[in-house]
Specification:
The chain is of the alpha/beta class and 570 residues long. 29% of the residues lie in helices and 25% in strands. The chain folds into four domains: 182 residues, FAD/NAD(P)-binding domain; 116 residues, FAD/NAD(P)-binding domain; 116 residues, FAD/NAD(P)-binding domain (3-Layer(bba) Sandwich), CATH 3.50.50; 101 residues, 3-Layer(aba) Sandwich (Oxidized Rhodanese, domain 1), CATH 3.40.250.
Length: 570
């Protein structure tokens, strides 16, 4: 029998702390609960902060979800804002607290303590930080400070540093508000949850909407109202937003002697209990178990934080907790494109040196019946384990409901599903919503063909080398499409003529077959294999995927294009 605590203190609000406190109240009506929040707001939409810059979220007040008095009236929970917890005395089970409004210092005892301090924006000690107007985005106060400054100072040129979620959303909303925006990312691509081939669609969307996107060039230093990059390029900036990532807020935990994990975040067990039996920790400050990497990792997402909050509260009151680990699922809107991902991607597999055999599928089907209004193509990439067919991860980019498809894959991964499961999923269908064989079913079928060795394929990142090596590339699109744009030196035999003209195709060398999206070319590959060809290879994603893959680098470098022109629509 668990002794019910009489007094539970929570450090930090927002997604984790506020959720834990309200769950505790639902479990126990008599327990005294106090939330301490260093800032002026205890419950706000952290993920919606950048949208205030463009007016999508019109009023600053709309970002605040609940006031302290709401917690008091609705849940009988006391909230103390503008209050900083200075230290934790584990032996006495007591907090030292400072009222930031009055400067008063006082102490509060606890039976159980929940840490939800979140994470802090990373600001490296660059030379010249005092020479720029620097901003970070963590809370409502931060976004208000940025918004007020750029309006009052009639700012025009704003540089955003960092191509993660906050950086992309901030850059987009600043551009929508009419500012000249430069986005700088030190690595070769934005948005690490997506592979390099998939993210090129987002690169194109960003530059097409007038943002100066600079990748693979890091900040060297700052000068007066200027950002100086490692390449030597200067960028004028009336304001600079630093969004290169966050670091777990662990100072209180560290000073209290709580154990930190391998990642530097607070170490917790399967019940989100720290190394102290009376202290729990949740949210961005902790490390979590990634069930696909088989390792501890950091994950700054609101959804997992709320699940952790419920689990910690349940465990305090003796309820069982089933901690299945995380897989990392996320979604973002980049102008008119939506992009979602879940699980592993190729970049993560390589970066962590995972010893795993895998293969991938890239398909570009319509997200609903193509004759329906609003139908759009969806770029969908699926990773699976070889030889088991176990689903490892997926990414989707398009103008339609990518989140729906990735949610399906995330569910399949959670239940250790395979390509066979994906093929057999029975999903809803009507022409305005999807296709009878949904995108995820289609991906499962293609994956099974690859797994079973029905055909071979190469990927868009390999095509440039093939072209430069003089490979035989067979374009099976209609001649009109070929004449508009094609891979240089590719030969054109449309699908309808293949069976009559196949003798023109050599059998003594590899033949790489390409259509618009990779589906027609697959049919040609199968036909030619039946006609006695044994070295036929499909170009995954076809000419459209290749166009997106090549475009941004062609635009921003001096290299020669391998296509006569690009194709971005059907």
């Amino acid at each position: 029998m668990v002794n019910k605590p009489k007094r539970i203190l929570v450090i930090g609000g927002v997604a984790g702390g506020a959720s834990a406190a309200t769950r505790i109240r639902r479990l126990d009506e008599d327990c005294e609960i106090i939330i301490f929040e260093r800032g002026p707001h205890v419950s706000f939409s952290n993920c919606a902060l950048p949208f205030h810059l463009s007016g999508v979220v019109e009023k600053e007040a709309d970002l605040v979800l609940m006031q302290p008095e709401d917690f008091e009236v609705k849940f009988n929970i006391e909230v103390r804002v503008n209050t900083e917890v200075v230290s934790i005395d584990r032996q006495s089970k007591e907090l030292s607290i400072k009222d930031l409004s009055t400067g008063e210092l006082y102490k509060e005892p606890y039976d159980k303590l929940i840490l939800s301090p979140g994470a802090n924006p990373i600001v490296p000690p660059f030379e010249g930080l005092d020479q720029i107007n620097l901003f970070t985005i963590r809370n409502v106060k931060d976004i208000s400070k940025l918004n007020t400054f750029i309006k009052n100072h009639h700012s025009q040129d704003i540089t955003v540093i960092g191509g993660g979620f906050i950086g992309i959303e901030t850059a987009e909303n600043l551009k929508m508000a009419g500012y000249n925006v430069t986005l700088v990312e030190a690595t070769p691509q934005i948005m690490r949850p997506f592979d390099y081939d998939m993210v090129q669609i987002l690169h194109k969307a960003i530059v097409d909407h007038g943002i100066d996107l600079i990748v693979n060039d890091k900040v060297l230093k700052f000068e007066k109202d200027r950002v100086i990059l490692g390449s030597g390029r200067p960028i004028h900036a009336d304001a600079v937003v630093m969004a290169i990532g966050v670091s777990p807020e662990t100072s209180l935990a560290k000073e209290a002697g709580l154990e930190l994990g391998k990642t530097g975040a607070i170490s917790v067990n399967q019940n989100f209990k720290t190394s102290d039996k009376d202290i729990y920790a949740i949210g961005d400050a902790i490390e979590v178990y990634n069930r696909l990497l088989f390792a501890q990792s950091k994950l700054s997402l609101a959804g997992p934080a709320q699940k952790q909050a419920r689990a910690a509260a349940d465990h305090i009151f003796g309820r069982p907790v089933n901690n299945t680990g995380v897989i990392g699922s996320s979604v973002i809107q980049v102008f008119d494109y939506n992009a979602a991902s879940t699980g592993l991607n190729e970049g993560l597999i390589k970066a962590t040196n995972m010893q795993i055999d895998y293969a991938s599928v890239l398909i570009i089907p319509p997200d609903k019946v193509s004759i329906m209004p609003g139908a759009e193509l969806m770029f969908f990439k699926l990773l699976f384990e070889v030889p088991t067919g176990r689903i490892l991860g997926a990414q989707a980019v398009g103008k339609g409901n990518v989140d729906k498809r990735i949610d399906v894959i995330a569910t399949v991964i959670k239940f250790n599903g395979t390509l066979e499961d994906l093929k057999d999923l029975e999903l809803v269908y009507a022409p305005p919503f999807g296709t009878a064989r949904d995108v995820v079913n289609f991906a499962g079928l293609v994956g099974l063909n690859i797994l079973h060795g029905c055909f071979r394929q190469v990927y868009v990142h390999q095509v440039r080398d093939l072209v430069e090596a003089g490979a035989y590339i067979l374009d099976v699109r209609p001649k009109a499409d070929y004449d508009k744009a094609h891979i240089k030196n590719a030969l054109n035999i449309p699908l309808g003529q293949i069976r009559k003209r196949y003798e023109e195709i050599p059998k003594d060398r590899p033949i790489y077959v390409q259509c618009k999206t990779g589906q027609t070319s697959y049919n040609v590959v199968m036909t030619l294999q039946h006609l006695g060809f044994d070295n036929i290879i499909n170009i995954s994603g076809g000419f459209m995927a290749l166009s997106f893959y090549e475009y941004y680098n062609d635009l921003t470098t001096d290299r020669e294009p391998i296509v006569t022109d690009y194709c971005f629509t059907l």
